[in-house]
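Q: Here's a chain of 746 amino acids. Please give me its 3D structure as tokens.
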Amino acid sequence: MSRHHLPKHARMDSITSLHRCRTPPLLHLMSLTSRRESSRILWGGLEWASHMNIPAVILPSPTDDDSDEDEDMFDAAPCKPTSVANKAASRDYAQLVSAISTSSICTTSHVQLWIRVPLSMQAMQAFQLLLDRCDHSPSIGCMLHMDRNIEPGALPSMASALHAFLGAGNVKAVSWDTGNFLRNKKGFPTLSKSYQHIFSMVYGRLGRTVRTLVEGQLDARSDHGGASSRLHHLQYLRHLRSRAPLPSKLDSEEAVLETPYLDSLQSPLQPLGDHLEYQTYETFEKDPVKYSNYGEAIELALLDGLARGAYPAIKSVFTSLGRLKETSESLRERLEEASCHRDLGAIAEIDVKEVTILVVGAGRGPLVREAIAAVDRVTSISLLGTEGNVALHAKIIAIEKNPSAMLYLQSLRETEPSWNGAYDPGVPDLANGAREIVPGSSRISVIGCDMREATSHPILRKMIENQQARGDIVVSELLGSFGDNELSPECLDGVQKCGVLKDTCVSIPQSYTAFLAPVSSARLISEAKAQGFHPLNHCDGPGGSMVGVQRALETPYVVRCHAASQTHDEQACWTYTHPHVSKNDADTGKSSAEAAADVHNDRCAHLSFSSDPTNGSRNGCGYGAVNGDIVRAVEGSDIGATLTIHGLLGTFHSVLYESKRTKRTSTISIAPHSFSTGMFSWFPLYFPLKEVLRVPPASTINCSIWRKSDDSRVWYEWCAEVEKSGFILSTCSIHNPGGRAYHVKK
């Protein structure tokens, strides 16, 4: 048995060496005559590992070797993978590993069992079968052993197989055998191009959590004996780790922020049933991409509205660019960048048009700030354009139901000049109560109510009664990981039904599409099962009722998937568009509110995922943009390997605003095919499968998902099956029927 004490406080992405050690031949248990004695010695060794607080014990793969020779874990080929994973010896081995993983050694002392898996498709398939037999115990992991040469022609097939295994194999460590290293002209170790690609692939995916070991016999050309001679190999691996693009993937600010969330299952938010915490708002507001794209969308909508004359003129103002420059940051920047000289002191008549913007679910005001900035930008564009005499003034209605967030919004309203028409809130109004309108400025009204109950607030009631005062643009950030899982359709339909929007109102977002794809991840299914042992009510403590495995596996989870592999390209489930427009408007003359009253938001989708020779390698873990380098590397792959599917991965793509006039579109997306790089406000939604699906080559995965609702709840139901040549090979039951395990409160 081979053991190594990994430092508790080492960085998760650190590359560390392993010193040479030699141990008795304890793990060829399946081939020894005295199994009882061998088992006693093994358990004794494990007890010692637990006593010494050793975090991980390395075990071999099932073997065919009946030899009694000592096993040296640093030999070039310390063990052979079983040739037939389904034979009795492998089942005996799985029984032993399962017994250890459920003992106090693993459950109480938290000793991990790392099974050494050579880099071959046969060995990787055998380990996945062992994990299945051990019910995907979280105590069992894989130490991937790079122990053989890879010919360039075999790289596409190996990369495809490895992509699937990085999810299904629960890889905890990677072992690099010195026998696979080449020598450069100066005699230092290096890796072949094929292995460099494998290194980039493995560490690009798991570099923040995987451990690295260097082992194997030393070349006769080495200058120094002993483990220290492997230092050159270790230094070379660190050099590969420092080469682009790995640092941008593993060491960026975004990567550092994500690290605590990797493979950590989180229950989806209940935004209508619960109030979000201050920290949640603060985390979302750090996203550098989302709000920038929202600002662009609002700007495009305002420009289109000006072009079609959608906003009424309210006043003519006589002023100069010099005066406006003092209050308009956008105008100031554009004047500084302009190549032509302007007479900043010339007085001109400017027609001011008023736009009404509703920000529903305003939170702490990030969308309000984007709307203010967009109005300022559009005004500066207009004033410096060919016409040069049109400006905007915005009435922005910020609606928020969270009382604590309301206090924050009100404090901004009372302290920020940009929220008060560019005037200092501390300066009293004029004697007649009126102030000159500043072109490009905005005035904010903060309203505390449920956005679906606009008729309950006097300001909103007046807007409903006066058609000209209704909303021209409605802006929201109600999207969830699956697009609609935080009830964006119900919320926006509720706003429209109240009649607070004009019939010509524009919604940002305009549409959002839910996507679904199969995912292979031993880590995620293990984490989902572990949720079953958590208290059903956290207030009850350890003595309270448990969640239960069935409920845990019928609940979708938000997760920053990491040790996961999306095995097929995602497919669209359904799309929601806002605001609703009646198909018969021309005939019936229905208003915007009446059109919204005629819709329902239940949906269903039946998707078929055909066999993909590349195992969906381009999609990585299912979170992040499609990897073009992987696409080229796996081109021509035809491995014919069996996949293991542990669940479904839900993502979304949203069109915030599409300008048909300028052909410009602002979008946000976490679907791999259109991923918004740098955005981290949303992680995918993981739908576990109670029954793991094994998918043979040339098989099709059929998935069905339903979005259901009643008067007070919305929930999802889902199932999947494997089909080949018209025959159903395996299936799983429909999950969460009637919302028995999980739902979202309306």
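Q: Can you summarize the key feature?
A: Residues 290-307 form the longest helix (18 residues).
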